[in-house]
Amino acid sequence: MNFKIKDNFLIFSAILIFASFIHSYFFQLLLLHNFNVFEYLRIIVEFNKNIQNGSLVPRWAPDFGNGYGTPFFIFNQSLGYYITEILYIISYDYFVAIKLSFFLVTFLSGLFAYLLSKEFSGKFSGLLFSFLYMILPYLSSGLNRSFTFSGFSALPWIPLVMWSFYKMQNCKKDKIKYLSLSSFSYALLIMSHGNISLIFLFALLFYIIFMNLYYKKRANEIIICFISLIIGISLSAFLWLPASYEKKYVQKHGSVPVWVKKISGKNPENRFTPLTGKAELMHEKFSPNEYFLRVKASEGASIRINIFYFPGWRAYVWDNNPKNTLKRKEIKIEHSNEYGLMDINIPSGFPIIDLIFTNTLIRWIADILSYCGVVALYFIYILTRSSK
C-alpha cells in the first residue's frame, strides 16, 4: 500500500514538473505569436463584472459593441472564463490568473491523459503519452493563428471522458460513480468548446460501441453509456441551448444583434438620450444586466437607451415609489431604428424606469434542463444506495 502511494506520488510529481517546464517555456512564445492576452483580459474583466454583480451565469457584456452591450457570453462557452475567474479571486491579479489558468489546464491535460493511457499500455507509456499530450497543443498553436483559451481549456476533458467511459464499462463496482464522472466530464467539455465537443461526440460514440463489442459486453452497458451522455448534455444545456436557438438573432461573425445596421464609431457619452418632448435625467444607476433611471418628463416624451436591444431586455416604469411593485407597469421597447437601440415612451412627471436583462423562454428551458441533469444524477445515486 505504501509503495503504491509512493509510486503514484512520483508520477503525479513528474507530470507536475513537466507541466511547469512546458508552461514556463511555451507560454511566453504563445503570447508573442498567437494568443491575444489583451483581448482575453478584456473578456475576463467583463465576465468578472457579471460575477461581482451576482450573475453566476453571465450572458450580457455591457461594455462590448463599442459600449452599447452585446450578448457575448451567450455565444461563447465560458468554462475557461470560470477557471480564470476563480484564480483571479484567489490571486486578485488578472495577468497572474491568466498564467495560472494555462498552467492548470496544461497540468490537468497531462494528468487525465496519463489515467487514460495507463489503462491500455502501462505506467511508463502513460507518462510518455501524458508528456506528448501536454506539449502538442503548444507546438500546434504555431499553425493556428486564431488560438483561443476556450479551445485550449477543452483539452483536459477529452481523455477524462474517455477514461470514465472505459471505467464505467469495465468495472464491476462503482458504476454509478463513473456514470456521474462521465456525465460531468462531458458536460465540462461542452461548456469549454461547443464545436470541439460536437466533433468529439462522433468519435466517442464509435469508442463506446467498439469497447462494447471488443469486451463483449451486454446491450444494457451501451444503454448506460447513452444515459450518461444524455445527462451530460442536459447538465450543460444552460450554455449550449440558448446559444443554438438565439444565434439567429446575431450577425454571422460576432454577437452584435442582426437589427443593428450602423454602429457608432465611439462609445456612447451616456446611456440616456431624449428623443421627443422634454426629458431630463435626474438619477441613474447601471449594472451589467440592469439600467435604473429617474427622469423629469413632459407629456408625450420618449427617450433612447444607448444599449443594443436583444430578446430578454424588458422595461418597467413606476409613477412614484419603486418599492411598490403593484404600481409597476411594463412598457414596450422599440428597436426599429438603424442603430438597434432601445426606444421607449415614458409618462409625464417624475417616472422611474428600470430596464432589466431577463431570461427568455428558451433560457428558462435550458436552465431547467440543467437542473434536471443534476436531479437525475442524484436520483440514480439514491436508487443505487437503496438497492444495496
Largest sheet, spatial ordering of strands: 2-3-8-5-6
- Radius of gyration from the CA trace? 25 Å
Count of helical stretches = 11
Report helical residue fraction: 55-70%
Sheet with most strands: 5 strands, antiparallel
General form: elongated
Low-confidence stretches: none
List the secondary-structure elements in sequence, H or E. Answer: HHHHHHHHHHEEEEEEEEH
Q: Which whole number gives the mean pLDDT? A: 88
Count of DSSP strands: 8
* Count of individual domains: 3
Assign the structural class, choosing from mainly alpha, mainly beta, alpha/beta, alpha+beta, or little secondary structure.
alpha+beta
Give the assembly state of these chains: single chain
Strand content: 5-15%
End-to-end distance, in Å?
A: 28 Å
What would you note in describing this structure?
By secondary structure, this protein is of the alpha+beta class. It folds into 3 domains: 1-58 and 77-138, no CATH class; 156-258 and 364-388, no CATH class; 272-357, Golgi alpha-mannosidase II (Immunoglobulin-like), CATH 2.60.40.1180. Helices cover 57% and strands 13% of the residues. It is built from 11 helices and 8 strands. The protein has helices at 2-33, 37-52, 79-91, 94-140, 149-153, 157-170, 175-192, 194-214, 219-235, 237-246, 361-387; strands at 272-276, 279-287, 290-297, 302-308, 313-318, 329-331, 341-345, 352-357. The strands form 2 sheets. It has a 5-stranded antiparallel β-sheet, with no helix packed on it. A 3-stranded antiparallel β-sheet has the order 1-4-7, with no helix packed on it. A hairpin with a 2-residue loop joins strand 2 and strand 3. Helix 3 crosses helix 4 (94-140), helix 7 runs antiparallel to helix 8 and helix 10 (237-246) runs antiparallel to helix 11. The longest helix is centred in the first third of the chain and has 47 residues, at 94-140. The radius of gyration is 25 Å and the shape is elongated. The chain starts with a helix and ends with a helix. The mean pLDDT is 88. Residues 78-263 form the Membrane protein 6-pyruvoyl-tetrahydropterin synthase-related domain. Pfam families: PTPS_related. Keywords: Membrane, Transmembrane, Transmembrane helix. This is Membrane protein 6-pyruvoyl-tetrahydropterin synthase-related domain-containing protein. The chain crosses the membrane at residues 9-31, 72-90, 97-116, 122-140, 147-166, 186-210, 222-241, 361-383.
